[in-house]
Amino acid sequence: MDNKTMARLLAETADLLEIDGADSFRIRSYRRAADAAEQTTVDLTEAAADTARLMEIDGIGKSMAAHLQSIAQTGTLDQRDQLLKKYGLGVLELLKLPAWARKPWPCSGCGQNRQR
């Protein structure tokens, strides 16, 4: 699996977490990791065998290293899959539309809206 695909899975997870009303710090960590995965010259699939090597990449911490290792091993990310079951694959397609990408999403259970 290439770095761009790994970055896309992390970015989609961040989008789904945002729709789900997750903590903004958690969402940002996924976005930072997605950016890092896309920009690094390190082959993440090869580096996945060594947690320390992944953590040397700016924007990748211990938990994101574990997520990247999971992606390298399985080709998917459990949390993304669970959120896709909850919201459906179509929601990712909607986010590609300019009008939807800027709309505030209702925050699950917190009574606030979050701007993308």
Radius of gyration: 14 Å
Helical proportion? 55-70%
Largest sheet: 2 strands, antiparallel
Strand order of the largest sheet: 1-2
Helices and strands, with pairings:
Blueprint: H1 3-20, H2 24-39, H3 44-47, H4 51-55, H5 62-74, H6 78-87, H7 90-95, H8 98-101, E1 105-106, E2 113-114
Antiparallel strand pairs: 1-2
Helix pairs in contact: 1-2, 1-6
How would you describe what is shown here?
There is one protein chain. The protein has helices at residues 3-20, 24-39, 44-47, 51-55, 62-74, 78-87, 90-95, 98-101, and strands spanning 105-106, 113-114. The protein is mostly helical and 116 residues long. The chain has 8 helices and 2 strands. Helix 1 runs antiparallel to helix 2. The longest helix has 18 residues, at 3-20. The chain has a two-stranded antiparallel ribbon.
Q: Which features would summarize this protein structure in a list?
A:
116 residues, mainly alpha, two-stranded antiparallel ribbon, 8 helices, 2 strands, 66% helix
